Amino acid sequence: MDNHNEPHYASESPAQHNTGSHFHSNISHDTLALILAGGRGSRLHQLTDWRAKPAVPFGGKFRIIDFPLSNCVNSGFRRIGVVTQYKAQSLIRHIQHGWSFLDGRFKEFIELLPAQQRTADETWYQGTADAVFQNIDIMQRHTAKYVMILGGDHIYKMDYRKLLAEHIEKAADMTVACLEVPVEEASAFGVMGVDTAWQVTSFTEKPAHPASIPDQPGKALVSMGIYVFNAAFLYEQLIRDHKTHDSAHDFGKDIIPYLVPRNRVFAHRFQHSCVNMAHDTIPYWRDVGTIDAYWEANVDLVGVTPELNLYDADWPIWTHQEQLPPAKFVFDDDNRRGQALDSSVSGGCIISGATVRRSLLFSNVKVNSFSSVEDSVILPDVVVGRHARLRRVVVEKRCSIPEGLVVGYDPDEDRKRFYVSEKGITLITPEMLGQEIHKAC
Protein backbone atom coordinates (compact mmCIF):
# COMPACT_ATOMS: atom_id res chain seq x y z
CA MET A 1 0.00 0.00 0.00
CA ASP A 2 1.34 3.43 -0.99
CA ASN A 3 1.22 5.75 2.02
CA HIS A 4 3.50 8.47 0.73
CA ASN A 5 0.69 11.02 0.69
CA GLU A 6 -0.69 10.16 4.12
CA PRO A 7 -0.26 12.70 6.90
CA HIS A 8 2.81 12.17 9.06
CA TYR A 9 3.41 13.87 12.38
CA ALA A 10 6.91 13.41 13.72
CA SER A 11 7.08 12.47 17.37
CA GLU A 12 9.95 13.74 19.39
CA SER A 13 12.59 11.48 20.83
CA PRO A 14 13.65 12.00 24.45
CA ALA A 15 16.87 13.58 23.14
CA GLN A 16 14.86 16.39 21.59
CA HIS A 17 13.62 17.37 25.04
CA ASN A 18 17.10 17.24 26.57
CA THR A 19 17.93 20.74 27.73
CA GLY A 20 21.60 20.14 28.43
CA SER A 21 23.75 19.51 31.47
CA HIS A 22 23.63 23.15 32.56
CA PHE A 23 19.88 23.11 33.11
CA HIS A 24 18.99 23.09 36.79
CA SER A 25 16.00 21.06 37.91
CA ASN A 26 14.62 23.91 40.05
CA ILE A 27 14.96 26.56 37.33
CA SER A 28 11.19 26.68 36.84
CA HIS A 29 10.70 27.74 40.45
CA ASP A 30 13.33 30.46 40.04
CA THR A 31 11.75 31.96 36.91
CA LEU A 32 8.83 34.31 36.46
CA ALA A 33 7.29 34.40 32.98
CA LEU A 34 5.61 37.63 31.94
CA ILE A 35 3.42 37.65 28.83
CA LEU A 36 2.78 41.06 27.27
CA ALA A 37 -0.79 40.77 25.99
CA GLY A 38 -2.03 44.34 25.93
CA GLY A 39 -1.74 45.15 22.23
CA ARG A 40 -4.59 45.79 19.85
CA GLY A 41 -3.10 44.53 16.60
CA SER A 42 -4.71 47.18 14.40
CA ARG A 43 -3.57 45.49 11.15
CA LEU A 44 -6.20 42.83 11.82
CA HIS A 45 -8.78 45.55 11.25
CA GLN A 46 -12.25 44.71 12.57
CA LEU A 47 -11.09 41.41 14.13
CA THR A 48 -9.59 43.51 16.93
CA ASP A 49 -12.31 46.12 17.24
CA TRP A 50 -13.62 44.44 20.40
CA ARG A 51 -10.73 42.24 21.54
CA ALA A 52 -6.95 42.40 21.98
CA LYS A 53 -4.86 40.58 19.39
CA PRO A 54 -3.80 37.79 21.83
CA ALA A 55 -7.51 36.96 22.30
CA VAL A 56 -8.17 36.44 18.57
CA PRO A 57 -9.32 32.85 17.88
CA PHE A 58 -6.88 30.62 16.00
CA GLY A 59 -6.65 27.05 14.76
CA GLY A 60 -10.26 25.96 15.14
CA LYS A 61 -10.48 25.99 18.95
CA PHE A 62 -7.64 28.05 20.40
CA ARG A 63 -6.78 31.71 21.00
CA ILE A 64 -3.41 33.19 20.04
CA ILE A 65 -2.36 33.59 23.68
CA ASP A 66 -2.75 29.83 24.21
CA PHE A 67 0.55 29.29 22.39
CA PRO A 68 2.91 31.19 24.74
CA LEU A 69 0.87 29.99 27.73
CA SER A 70 1.13 26.37 26.56
CA ASN A 71 4.84 26.78 25.89
CA CYS A 72 5.26 27.96 29.49
CA VAL A 73 3.33 25.05 30.99
CA ASN A 74 4.90 22.43 28.72
CA SER A 75 8.35 23.82 29.54
CA GLY A 76 7.63 23.55 33.25
CA PHE A 77 7.25 27.29 33.95
CA ARG A 78 4.09 27.74 35.97
CA ARG A 79 4.61 31.13 37.57
CA ILE A 80 3.12 33.38 34.91
CA GLY A 81 1.91 36.97 34.76
CA VAL A 82 -0.26 38.21 31.87
CA VAL A 83 -0.09 41.97 31.25
CA THR A 84 -3.31 43.29 29.67
CA GLN A 85 -4.54 46.68 28.53
CA TYR A 86 -6.55 47.10 25.30
CA LYS A 87 -10.13 45.71 25.44
CA ALA A 88 -9.06 42.80 27.59
CA GLN A 89 -12.41 41.42 28.79
CA SER A 90 -12.56 38.42 26.41
CA LEU A 91 -8.89 37.69 27.08
CA ILE A 92 -9.43 37.80 30.85
CA ARG A 93 -12.51 35.59 30.58
CA HIS A 94 -10.65 33.07 28.43
CA ILE A 95 -7.78 32.82 30.91
CA GLN A 96 -10.16 32.49 33.85
CA HIS A 97 -12.13 29.72 32.15
CA GLY A 98 -9.30 27.82 30.49
CA TRP A 99 -6.22 28.39 32.63
CA SER A 100 -7.43 28.01 36.21
CA PHE A 101 -5.91 24.53 36.63
CA LEU A 102 -2.58 25.72 38.06
CA ASP A 103 -2.28 24.97 41.78
CA GLY A 104 -1.47 27.83 44.12
CA ARG A 105 -0.54 25.36 46.85
CA PHE A 106 2.59 24.60 44.82
CA LYS A 107 3.20 28.29 44.05
CA GLU A 108 1.83 27.86 40.53
CA PHE A 109 -0.25 30.72 39.15
CA ILE A 110 -1.38 32.78 36.21
CA GLU A 111 -1.75 36.32 37.48
CA LEU A 112 -3.62 38.90 35.44
CA LEU A 113 -1.93 42.33 35.45
CA PRO A 114 -4.23 44.92 33.86
CA ALA A 115 -3.13 48.52 33.39
CA GLN A 116 -4.04 50.28 36.65
CA GLN A 117 -2.07 53.56 36.59
CA ARG A 118 -0.04 52.15 39.47
CA THR A 119 2.88 54.61 39.27
CA ALA A 120 3.10 58.21 40.43
CA ASP A 121 2.71 59.35 36.80
CA GLU A 122 -0.77 57.78 36.72
CA THR A 123 -0.42 56.76 33.08
CA TRP A 124 -1.52 53.69 31.17
CA TYR A 125 1.26 51.45 29.83
CA GLN A 126 3.45 53.67 27.64
CA GLY A 127 5.62 50.95 26.07
CA THR A 128 6.69 47.36 26.59
CA ALA A 129 9.31 48.26 29.20
CA ASP A 130 6.89 50.58 30.99
CA ALA A 131 4.29 47.79 31.11
CA VAL A 132 6.82 45.68 33.03
CA PHE A 133 8.03 48.60 35.15
CA GLN A 134 4.50 49.40 36.34
CA ASN A 135 4.31 45.89 37.81
CA ILE A 136 7.80 45.82 39.30
CA ASP A 137 6.61 45.63 42.92
CA ILE A 138 4.40 42.63 42.12
CA MET A 139 7.27 40.91 40.34
CA GLN A 140 9.69 41.54 43.19
CA ARG A 141 7.33 39.87 45.65
CA HIS A 142 7.68 36.61 43.70
CA THR A 143 11.46 36.60 44.45
CA ALA A 144 12.44 35.13 41.08
CA LYS A 145 16.06 34.85 39.98
CA TYR A 146 15.14 35.13 36.30
CA VAL A 147 12.39 36.92 34.41
CA MET A 148 11.29 35.70 30.98
CA ILE A 149 9.36 38.26 28.94
CA LEU A 150 7.18 36.97 26.11
CA GLY A 151 4.91 38.46 23.49
CA GLY A 152 1.33 37.23 23.60
CA ASP A 153 0.54 37.52 19.90
CA HIS A 154 2.62 35.00 17.91
CA ILE A 155 2.06 31.39 16.88
CA TYR A 156 4.95 29.03 17.64
CA LYS A 157 6.01 26.09 19.82
CA MET A 158 9.16 26.61 21.86
CA ASP A 159 10.88 24.83 24.73
CA TYR A 160 11.74 27.74 27.00
CA ARG A 161 13.95 25.49 29.14
CA LYS A 162 16.58 25.53 26.42
CA LEU A 163 16.45 29.31 26.25
CA LEU A 164 16.93 29.58 30.03
CA ALA A 165 19.69 26.98 30.05
CA GLU A 166 21.66 28.89 27.42
CA HIS A 167 21.17 32.14 29.31
CA ILE A 168 22.64 30.59 32.46
CA GLU A 169 25.44 28.78 30.64
CA LYS A 170 26.69 31.99 29.04
CA ALA A 171 26.39 34.04 32.24
CA ALA A 172 24.31 36.54 30.29
CA ASP A 173 22.66 39.62 31.72
CA MET A 174 20.03 39.42 28.99
CA THR A 175 19.26 36.89 26.27
CA VAL A 176 17.19 37.68 23.18
CA ALA A 177 15.55 34.89 21.17
CA CYS A 178 16.20 35.44 17.48
CA LEU A 179 14.93 34.32 14.11
CA GLU A 180 16.36 34.41 10.61
CA VAL A 181 14.08 36.15 8.11
CA PRO A 182 14.46 37.48 4.55
CA VAL A 183 16.09 40.92 4.52
CA GLU A 184 13.08 42.45 2.78
CA GLU A 185 10.90 41.48 5.79
CA ALA A 186 13.39 42.48 8.51
CA SER A 187 12.46 46.16 8.66
CA ALA A 188 9.42 45.18 10.74
CA PHE A 189 11.69 43.83 13.52
CA GLY A 190 14.66 44.68 15.68
CA VAL A 191 17.72 43.59 13.70
CA MET A 192 20.78 42.20 15.50
CA GLY A 193 24.44 41.73 14.78
CA VAL A 194 26.35 39.05 16.71
CA ASP A 195 29.92 37.82 17.10
CA THR A 196 31.12 34.22 16.89
CA ALA A 197 30.01 33.57 20.49
CA TRP A 198 26.53 34.92 19.64
CA GLN A 199 26.98 37.95 21.86
CA VAL A 200 24.93 40.80 20.43
CA THR A 201 27.18 43.52 19.00
CA SER A 202 24.53 45.76 17.47
CA PHE A 203 20.77 46.22 17.63
CA THR A 204 18.63 48.49 15.44
CA GLU A 205 14.88 48.71 15.89
CA LYS A 206 12.96 48.49 12.58
CA PRO A 207 15.74 49.81 10.30
CA ALA A 208 14.85 51.07 6.84
CA HIS A 209 17.76 49.13 5.34
CA PRO A 210 18.41 45.99 7.44
CA ALA A 211 21.87 44.43 7.35
CA SER A 212 22.29 40.84 6.22
CA ILE A 213 23.87 38.09 8.30
CA PRO A 214 27.53 38.11 7.14
CA ASP A 215 27.60 34.50 5.93
CA GLN A 216 23.96 34.48 4.74
CA PRO A 217 23.27 37.16 2.13
CA GLY A 218 19.57 37.89 1.88
CA LYS A 219 18.90 36.87 5.50
CA ALA A 220 18.74 39.06 8.61
CA LEU A 221 18.82 38.11 12.28
CA VAL A 222 15.83 39.60 14.10
CA SER A 223 14.46 39.69 17.61
CA MET A 224 11.38 37.57 18.39
CA GLY A 225 10.42 39.84 21.29
CA ILE A 226 11.32 37.05 23.72
CA TYR A 227 13.77 38.06 26.44
CA VAL A 228 15.39 36.51 29.51
CA PHE A 229 16.89 38.72 32.22
CA ASN A 230 18.55 38.14 35.52
CA ALA A 231 15.79 39.54 37.71
CA ALA A 232 17.82 42.00 39.78
CA PHE A 233 19.48 43.32 36.63
CA LEU A 234 16.10 43.80 34.93
CA TYR A 235 14.69 45.79 37.83
CA GLU A 236 17.75 48.07 37.84
CA GLN A 237 17.38 48.72 34.11
CA LEU A 238 13.62 49.38 34.32
CA ILE A 239 14.14 51.94 37.07
CA ARG A 240 16.96 53.60 35.12
CA ASP A 241 14.85 53.71 31.95
CA HIS A 242 11.84 55.09 33.83
CA LYS A 243 13.98 58.04 34.96
CA THR A 244 15.18 58.70 31.40
CA HIS A 245 12.80 61.41 30.20
CA ASP A 246 13.45 61.10 26.45
CA SER A 247 12.90 57.33 26.47
CA ALA A 248 9.93 55.66 24.78
CA HIS A 249 10.17 53.02 27.55
CA ASP A 250 10.30 50.18 25.05
CA PHE A 251 12.57 47.13 25.07
CA GLY A 252 13.36 47.30 21.37
CA LYS A 253 13.74 51.07 21.06
CA ASP A 254 15.46 51.83 24.36
CA ILE A 255 16.44 48.99 26.69
CA ILE A 256 18.31 46.70 24.28
CA PRO A 257 20.23 49.44 22.39
CA TYR A 258 21.38 50.82 25.76
CA LEU A 259 22.50 47.41 27.08
CA VAL A 260 24.29 46.01 24.01
CA PRO A 261 27.51 48.10 24.28
CA ARG A 262 27.56 47.95 28.09
CA ASN A 263 26.44 44.49 29.22
CA ARG A 264 26.43 40.81 28.33
CA VAL A 265 23.55 40.49 25.86
CA PHE A 266 23.38 37.23 23.91
CA ALA A 267 21.21 35.93 21.08
CA HIS A 268 19.49 32.55 21.27
CA ARG A 269 18.72 30.86 17.95
CA PHE A 270 15.10 29.74 17.77
CA GLN A 271 15.97 26.58 15.84
CA HIS A 272 17.72 25.31 18.99
CA SER A 273 14.49 25.37 21.00
CA CYS A 274 11.68 25.10 18.45
CA VAL A 275 9.38 22.11 18.98
CA ASN A 276 8.03 20.00 16.09
CA MET A 277 9.94 21.58 13.23
CA ALA A 278 8.41 20.25 10.01
CA HIS A 279 11.78 20.66 8.34
CA ASP A 280 15.23 20.22 9.86
CA THR A 281 16.25 23.86 9.52
CA ILE A 282 13.07 25.95 9.31
CA PRO A 283 11.41 26.57 12.68
CA TYR A 284 7.71 27.45 12.66
CA TRP A 285 6.89 30.99 13.83
CA ARG A 286 4.08 33.17 12.56
CA ASP A 287 3.03 36.72 13.18
CA VAL A 288 -0.64 36.55 12.23
CA GLY A 289 -0.93 40.31 12.45
CA THR A 290 -2.65 40.94 9.12
CA ILE A 291 -5.82 39.48 7.64
CA ASP A 292 -3.76 37.80 4.90
CA ALA A 293 -1.30 36.25 7.37
CA TYR A 294 -4.12 35.20 9.69
CA TRP A 295 -6.03 33.51 6.86
CA GLU A 296 -2.92 31.79 5.52
CA ALA A 297 -1.83 30.41 8.89
CA ASN A 298 -5.29 29.02 9.61
CA VAL A 299 -5.88 27.54 6.17
CA ASP A 300 -2.40 25.94 6.25
CA LEU A 301 -3.62 23.77 9.12
CA VAL A 302 -5.98 21.80 6.88
CA GLY A 303 -3.08 20.54 4.73
CA VAL A 304 -2.07 16.88 4.73
CA THR A 305 0.99 17.57 6.90
CA PRO A 306 0.89 21.19 8.07
CA GLU A 307 4.04 22.90 9.28
CA LEU A 308 2.41 23.50 12.68
CA ASN A 309 1.76 20.18 14.41
CA LEU A 310 -1.30 20.44 16.65
CA TYR A 311 -1.52 16.66 17.07
CA ASP A 312 1.55 16.22 19.26
CA ALA A 313 0.55 14.68 22.60
CA ASP A 314 3.99 15.48 24.03
CA TRP A 315 3.61 19.23 23.45
CA PRO A 316 -0.13 19.97 23.44
CA ILE A 317 -1.69 23.39 23.08
CA TRP A 318 -3.99 23.92 26.05
CA THR A 319 -7.11 26.04 25.95
CA HIS A 320 -10.59 26.55 27.35
CA GLN A 321 -12.43 23.40 26.29
CA GLU A 322 -16.14 23.82 25.74
CA GLN A 323 -18.31 20.75 26.28
CA LEU A 324 -19.73 20.30 22.79
CA PRO A 325 -21.24 17.44 20.79
CA PRO A 326 -19.24 16.05 17.88
CA ALA A 327 -19.45 17.60 14.44
CA LYS A 328 -22.33 16.25 12.35
CA PHE A 329 -22.80 15.90 8.58
CA VAL A 330 -26.35 15.29 7.37
CA PHE A 331 -28.10 14.55 4.04
CA ASP A 332 -26.67 12.40 1.27
CA ASP A 333 -28.69 13.27 -1.81
CA ASP A 334 -27.09 14.06 -5.16
CA ASN A 335 -27.87 17.77 -4.92
CA ARG A 336 -27.83 18.04 -1.13
CA ARG A 337 -24.91 16.30 0.52
CA GLY A 338 -23.39 17.31 3.84
CA GLN A 339 -19.63 16.98 3.40
CA ALA A 340 -16.30 18.54 4.32
CA LEU A 341 -13.25 17.87 2.13
CA ASP A 342 -9.65 18.72 3.05
CA SER A 343 -11.02 20.66 6.01
CA SER A 344 -10.93 20.87 9.80
CA VAL A 345 -14.32 20.95 11.52
CA SER A 346 -14.60 21.59 15.27
CA GLY A 347 -17.08 20.30 17.82
CA GLY A 348 -20.67 21.48 17.72
CA CYS A 349 -20.63 22.07 13.95
CA ILE A 350 -23.44 20.86 11.69
CA ILE A 351 -22.86 20.61 7.94
CA SER A 352 -26.42 20.21 6.70
CA GLY A 353 -26.58 19.36 3.02
CA ALA A 354 -23.71 21.75 2.25
CA THR A 355 -20.16 21.41 0.97
CA VAL A 356 -17.06 22.66 2.80
CA ARG A 357 -13.71 22.53 1.00
CA ARG A 358 -10.20 23.44 2.21
CA SER A 359 -11.61 25.38 5.15
CA LEU A 360 -11.29 25.60 8.90
CA LEU A 361 -14.47 25.79 10.97
CA PHE A 362 -14.38 26.78 14.62
CA SER A 363 -16.93 25.53 17.18
CA ASN A 364 -20.70 25.68 16.74
CA VAL A 365 -20.76 26.62 13.05
CA LYS A 366 -23.86 25.63 11.10
CA VAL A 367 -23.67 25.50 7.31
CA ASN A 368 -27.14 25.10 5.81
CA SER A 369 -28.30 23.24 2.72
CA PHE A 370 -27.18 24.02 -0.82
CA SER A 371 -24.46 26.39 0.40
CA SER A 372 -20.72 26.12 -0.18
CA VAL A 373 -17.69 27.26 1.84
CA GLU A 374 -14.26 27.13 0.17
CA ASP A 375 -10.78 28.19 1.32
CA SER A 376 -12.27 29.97 4.31
CA VAL A 377 -11.88 30.50 8.04
CA ILE A 378 -15.18 30.53 9.93
CA LEU A 379 -15.04 31.63 13.58
CA PRO A 380 -17.37 30.25 16.30
CA ASP A 381 -21.15 30.47 16.36
CA VAL A 382 -21.58 31.41 12.70
CA VAL A 383 -24.67 30.38 10.73
CA VAL A 384 -24.35 30.16 6.95
CA GLY A 385 -27.73 30.48 5.25
CA ARG A 386 -29.03 28.31 2.43
CA HIS A 387 -27.60 28.80 -1.07
CA ALA A 388 -24.82 31.06 0.24
CA ARG A 389 -21.44 30.81 -1.45
CA LEU A 390 -18.31 31.83 0.46
CA ARG A 391 -14.76 31.68 -0.91
CA ARG A 392 -11.49 33.00 0.59
CA VAL A 393 -13.22 34.68 3.51
CA VAL A 394 -12.70 35.14 7.23
CA VAL A 395 -16.06 35.28 9.01
CA GLU A 396 -16.15 36.85 12.49
CA LYS A 397 -17.89 35.20 15.44
CA ARG A 398 -21.68 35.14 15.59
CA CYS A 399 -22.25 36.26 12.01
CA SER A 400 -25.45 35.11 10.40
CA ILE A 401 -24.71 34.85 6.66
CA PRO A 402 -27.92 35.71 4.77
CA GLU A 403 -29.49 33.17 2.47
CA GLY A 404 -28.05 33.40 -1.04
CA LEU A 405 -25.17 35.73 -0.14
CA VAL A 406 -22.19 35.35 -2.51
CA VAL A 407 -18.77 36.59 -1.31
CA GLY A 408 -15.28 35.99 -2.68
CA TYR A 409 -16.10 35.89 -6.38
CA ASP A 410 -16.20 39.62 -7.23
CA PRO A 411 -13.74 41.72 -5.15
CA ASP A 412 -15.10 45.03 -6.42
CA GLU A 413 -18.60 44.09 -5.34
CA ASP A 414 -17.34 42.74 -2.01
CA ARG A 415 -15.55 46.01 -1.19
CA LYS A 416 -18.88 47.82 -1.17
CA ARG A 417 -19.85 45.98 2.05
CA PHE A 418 -16.82 44.22 3.45
CA TYR A 419 -13.08 44.61 4.04
CA VAL A 420 -10.99 43.03 1.26
CA SER A 421 -7.25 42.56 1.89
CA GLU A 422 -4.35 43.12 -0.49
CA LYS A 423 -4.36 39.42 -1.42
CA GLY A 424 -8.11 39.27 -1.88
CA ILE A 425 -9.22 37.80 1.46
CA THR A 426 -12.61 39.16 2.52
CA LEU A 427 -13.40 39.83 6.17
CA ILE A 428 -17.07 39.64 7.19
CA THR A 429 -18.28 40.90 10.57
CA PRO A 430 -21.77 41.26 12.08
CA GLU A 431 -21.52 45.05 11.82
CA MET A 432 -20.86 44.82 8.09
CA LEU A 433 -24.00 42.72 7.74
CA GLY A 434 -26.03 45.23 9.75
CA GLN A 435 -26.42 42.75 12.61
CA GLU A 436 -26.24 43.14 16.37
CA ILE A 437 -22.74 43.89 17.68
CA HIS A 438 -21.40 41.46 20.28
CA LYS A 439 -18.66 43.43 21.98
CA ALA A 440 -17.35 40.70 24.30
CA CYS A 441 -15.65 38.44 21.79
Descriptive overview:
The longest helix has 12 residues, at 231-242. This protein has a 7-stranded mixed beta sheet with strand order 5-4-1-6-11-8-12, with helices on both faces. The protein has a 6-stranded mixed beta sheet with strand order 18-21-24-27-31-30. Strands 14-19-22-25-28 form a 5-stranded parallel beta sheet, with no helix packed on it. Helix content is 17%, strand content 26%. The chain folds into 2 domains: 22-301, Spore Coat Polysaccharide Biosynthesis Protein SpsA, Chain A (Alpha-Beta Complex); 328-433, Hexapeptide repeat proteins (UDP N-Acetylglucosamine Acyltransferase, domain 1, 3 Solenoid), CATH 2.160.10. The N and C termini lie far apart (47 Å). The chain has 441 residues and is of the alpha/beta class. The protein has 9 helices and 31 strands. It has helices at residues 66-75, 89-98, 128-133, 136-141, 160-169, 231-242, 251-259, 291-300, 411-414; strands at 31-36, 57-58, 62-63, 79-84, 109-114, 146-151, 155-156, 174-182, 190-194, 200-205, 219-230, 265-269, 285-286, 328-330, 332-333, 336-337, 339-341, 344-345, 350-352, 355-357, 360-361, 366-367, 372-374, 377-378, 383-384, 389-391, 393-395, 400-401, 406-407, 419-420, 426-428. It is globular and about 70 Å long. Pathway: Glycan biosynthesis; glycogen biosynthesis. Its EC number is 2.7.7.27. Alpha-D-glucose 1-phosphate binds at residues 125, 190, 205-206, 223. Pfam families: Hexapep_GlmU (PF24894), NTP_transferase (PF00483). Residues 1-22 are annotated as: Disordered.
